[in-house]
Amino acid sequence: MIQEWNQTRVSEFIFIGISSNRELQLTFFILLLVVYLLCLFGYLAIIIVVKVDPHLQTPMYFFLSHFSFLEMCFTSNTIPKLLYNLLTENNHILFEECIVQMFFFLSFVTIDCLLLTVMSYDRFVAICCPLHYNNIMTKTICNSFTTVLWSIGFVYSAIHTSVLLQLPFCGPNEIDHFFCDFPIVLKLSCSDTFLNHLLMSVTGSLLGFSCLLMILRSYINIITAVVKIRFSERTSKAFSTCTSHLTVVSLYYGTLIFTYLPPPSNYSLNYDKVVALVYCIGNPMLNSIIYSLNNKEVKGAFKKLLQL
Predict the structure, then answer these.
(1) How many CB atoms neighbour CB 150 within 10 A?
(2) HEC-encoded secondary structure of 49-95
(3) Do residues 185 and 102 touch, judged by C-beta distance below 8 A?
(4) Residue 230: how many other CB atoms lie within 10 Å
(5) What are phi and psi of 134, to 5 degrees?
(6) Hey, is 174 helix, strand or coil?
(7) Strand order in the sheet with 12-15
(8) Whether the Cβ atoms of residue 78 and residue 178 lie closer than 8 Å to each other
(9) What is the residue extent of each domain of the chain?
(10) Contact 108/34 with Cβ under 8 angstroms?
(11) For a tag site, which of 72, 185, 199, 261 has the least CB within 10 Å?
(12) Cis link prior to 59 (omega < 30° from 0)?
């Protein structure tokens, strides 16, 4: 135990986990391991083909490779620890490790939100300003976009993490979940966390709704352009990529709402864990399928790579 604030501060947390049934734990372990490896393979394949195929050296696939790397980081932040816990039944996590996990989880969620917004802007420019697309979405601009959004994500998370570290944690130390999440860990503090919850709710809502409004604005302009002008083959091809992006955006915001909005009054105790599993591993798996198996250019590039 660590002495701080003249109180006894917990040095580790204990996850309640998904299930206490050993057989179910082994089943969950196998299923999650398979899905996790499929996710890693899918995203790694996207990153490789985008890197080596000259036909995919475009802003859209540049952002897609960043999105793939982000999703790999996101799943790797929580799933390996969960797999280890399921296999060994060692559900302990050090306080410092918990803080690190929370920091990166919030960082990746924030970056994901910002990156999806930038990707929608890229589709808007490609469809509504096709003749100026290459002049607007230059390599310098794309690199600037990614640098800024990754920086914002880490700074935003660092602010909330530093505020949380000012709180005393003197017990209990059991987390009724399978990973460290800010709202859950805040409940374990032995001080008033109203301001922390308020800060996170306000800033999170502002960020999420701002990004959503910008995405909606991009697609409203895209739909307006579709109605008004006759597309060239190139523009029509760019428009076809919007379906994948809209599906990923819907999955992101849909599970985000179910994760952080108050659950229904008659929900089971495992409701939040099921939703979190969908968010942490289900969505990344579906996204990898959407952007790989459902993308003709990526599939074609991957087939060429295998034939080398």
Answers:
(1) 18
(2) HHHHCHHHCCHHHHHHHHHHHHHHHHHHHHHHHHHHHHHHCCCEEEH
(3) yes
(4) 7
(5) -65, -30
(6) strand
(7) 92-94, 12-15, 174-175
(8) yes
(9) 2-307
(10) no
(11) 261
(12) no
In contact, 180 and 101? CB cutoff 8 Å? yes
Q: Give 302's contacts (C-beta < 8 A, 6+ positions apart).
A: 45, 49, 292
Of 55, 56, 161, the closest CA to residue 106 belongs to 161
Model pLDDT for residues 142-191, shown as the tens digit of each residue: 999 999 999 999 999 999 999 999 999 987 889 988 999 998 899 899 88
- Residue for token pair 């005393």: 168
Asked whether 215 and 117 are in contact (CB, 8 A), the reply is yes
pLDDT of 53-112, one tens digit each?
A: 888 889 999 999 999 999 999 999 999 999 999 998 889 999 999 999 999 999 999 999
Q: Given the structure tokens 């909005």, which residue do they identify?
A: 261
Measured distance CA(44)–CA(219) in Å, rounded: 29
Question: What's the rounded Cα separation, in Å, for the pair 303 and 289?
Answer: 16
SS3 13: strand
Pick the CATH number of 2-307 from 4.10.640.10, 1.20.1070.10, 1.10.275.10, 3.40.1160.10: 1.20.1070.10
Residue 1 is given by DSSP the state -
- φ, ψ of residue 131 to 5 degrees: the values are -70, -25
* Residue 296 CB-density burial (10 A; 0-12 exposed, 13-18 middle, 19+ buried): exposed
Q: Which has the minimum average pLDDT: 28-32, 70-74, 109-113, 295-299?
A: 295-299
**pLDDT greater than 60 at residue 268:** no
The span from the CA of 305 to the CA of 235, in Å, is: 27
CA neighbor of 91 nearest in space, from 32, 170, 178, 23: 178
Please tell me whether residue 14 adopts helix, strand or coil conformation: strand
